[in-house]
Design goal:
Blueprint (H helix, E strand, L loop, with lengths): L1 H20 L5 H4 L1 H4 L5 E8 L2 H15 L9 E4 L13 E4 L8 E8 L4 E9 H31 L3 H33 L3 H8 L1 H10 L3 E6 L5 H11 L14 E8 L2 E4 L7 E4 L2 E8 L4 E9 L3 E3 L2 H28 L3
Parallel strand pairs: 6-7
Antiparallel strand pairs: 1-5, 2-3, 4-5, 7-10, 8-9, 9-12, 10-11
Helix pairs in contact: 5-6, 6-8, 9-10
Length: 339
């Protein structure tokens, strides 16, 4: 009797063990999209010798779905041109972990027969959008702050400042499009609200050129020598696409340049007569219609010394030209990059 009971008990254990071994595979291993449908999810199945490898594999497959490249250090995402408006944007994002892809969730299964882990990685499109939109809004705000200011300057007939803010908006616009590009691949239907902003980004290059074409600077100068300073300053600004005019009535801006030669003569009227010239310059750039000073600059040159006043003036003013070539444009560009 005892042997019969023991045999039955053993048979029961073996039956349960057999059924345990025959645990069915989750449906998502066979076809992940039957469980995580494309309309609601971005989902891929990964596999590996342990759970972490399976998760990394699944994440890499999501990256591949997003038309990306994967490297051994992480997932380097180079987004496709999701919109005709974003052709000039930088489109490279590095995904170091699942945390960098908002809303990634996982489901894992260990398949004993193959001694392998399987992992379903999935992103709910709507949940993803709820998490990523505040970040997109922040980038959009950074772009629109500069772009709207540029448009305001256009309305006020201030092309130099319009150019400045359009240039600042270009980088901010690229950052905005970058943030939007992957979001479009995951949650396209939600990103359509930004189509007007994308068009504005696309128009920036044209707006910069239009602003440049509206710039016409008239130079008023006092204290020049042999036209050295005027031609030097004009050449420097023209190299940065700022145009000049000889007609004050039609100008957009007035550049006022005042130069003091600071001439000194030692031992005048003798054979030892020496002239030294240490020219100093003040430059201001103003909008005569807005009565606004856009830029101010002062510079003093190294001393020019000679036995004749003409040669001393020539050397001193050449020194001032050299100093301007070193400092003037960099100071102006720094002013134009101020936010």
């Amino acid at each position: 009797m005892i042997k019969r009971i023991a045999a039955l008990f053993l048979a029961l254990i073996l039956t349960q063990f057999a059924f345990a071994k025959q645990e069915p595979l989750p449906q998502w291993i066979m076809d992940i999209h039957t469980i995580y449908n494309d309309a609601e999810y971005v989902a891929e199945c990964g596999e590996g010798a342990n759970e972490e490898i399976a998760k990394s594999d699944a994440l890499s497959r999501i990256a591949s779905y997003l038309q990306t490249t994967v490297n051994s250090q992480g997932v380097s995402v180079t987004s496709v041109n999701g919109s005709a408006y974003s052709m000039n944007a930088i489109k490279k994002v590095t995904v170091e972990s699942s945390a960098d892809l908002f809303g990634v969730e996982y489901e894992t299964f260990y398949y004993k027969k193959k001694k392998k882990y399987y992992c379903a990685a999935y992103i709910n499109r709507e949940k993803y959008w709820q998490q990523i939109q505040p970040k997109i809004e922040l980038k959009k705000h950074g772009f629109r702050k500069f772009y709207d200011e540029a448009e305001k300057m256009n309305r006020e007939s201030e092309p130099i400042l319009a150019r400045k803010y359009f240039i600042l908006s270009k980088k901010a616009g690229e950052d905005f499009l970058n943030e939007l590009s992957i979001s479009r691949l995951i949650a396209r239907e939600f990103t359509n609200i930004y189509s007007n902003d994308e068009k504005k980004v696309a128009e920036i290059e044209k707006n910069i050129k239009d602003a440049e074409n509206s710039i016409a600077i008239f130079i008023e100068i006092r204290g020049d020598y042999a036209n050295k300073i005027q031609s030097n300053v004009q050449s420097l600004f023209e190299s940065e696409k700022y145009s000049f005019t000889g007609n004050k009535k039609n100008c957009s801006h007035i550049m006022t340049i005042e130069i003091e030669p600071n001439k000194d003569v030692s031992h005048p009227g003798t054979d030892d007569e020496i002239t030294s010239v240490v020219p100093s310059m003040t430059l201001t750039l103003t909008n005569p219609y807005m009565k606004q000073n856009l830029f101010s600059f002062t510079r003093k040159a190294d001393k020019g010394i000679a036995y004749t006043q003409e040669k001393a003036m020539d050397r001193g003013y050449n020194n001032l030209c050299t100093a301007l070539e070193c400092d003037l444009l960099s100071a102006f560009q720094e002013k134009m990059l101020e936010e």
